[in-house]
Amino acid sequence: MLVVYSPAARTIREWPVALARGATVLQALLASGLPSEFPQLDFRSAPVGVWGRKATLNRVLRDQDRVEVYRPLKVDPKVARRERYRRQGGRGTGPFAPKKTGSPPAY
Fold first, then answer.
1. Read out DSSP for 31-60?
2. Is the pLDDT of residue 9 over 80?
3. Please, what's the largest Cα pairwise distance for the chain?
4. Would you list the domain boundaries of the chain?
5. Does the domain spanning 2-69 belong to CATH 3.90.940.20?
6. 3-state secondary structure of 69
7. Model-level pTM?
8. Quick one: which of 66, 83, 94, 95 is 20 to 30 A from 47 by CA?
9. Contact by Cβ (8 Å): 29, 43
């Protein structure tokens, strides 16, 4: 099993963990050393998942599972997408963008 946490953007910490069959997400987190390395993280209330799907702390793990601890988002993804669209000028990108003169036609 593998426990993964990203404390900041573009930073990933991984801990390989060997546990007995029937171990839970909570047992994997405790065995990983995550609480001692990041004492400011309240992992009991932080959202966790297994292979990208939300899970509870009492979920039983299978062999080769990847336990992920998520940090809160700083910006709502929908708001970020709208802001990017606004910065790009709306019609300046994508399939409806004006074509440059002399460029080949689209397929």
1. HHTHHHH-TT--TTTS-EEETTEEE-TTPB
2. yes
3. 65
4. 2-69
5. no
6. strand
7. 0.69
8. 83
9. yes
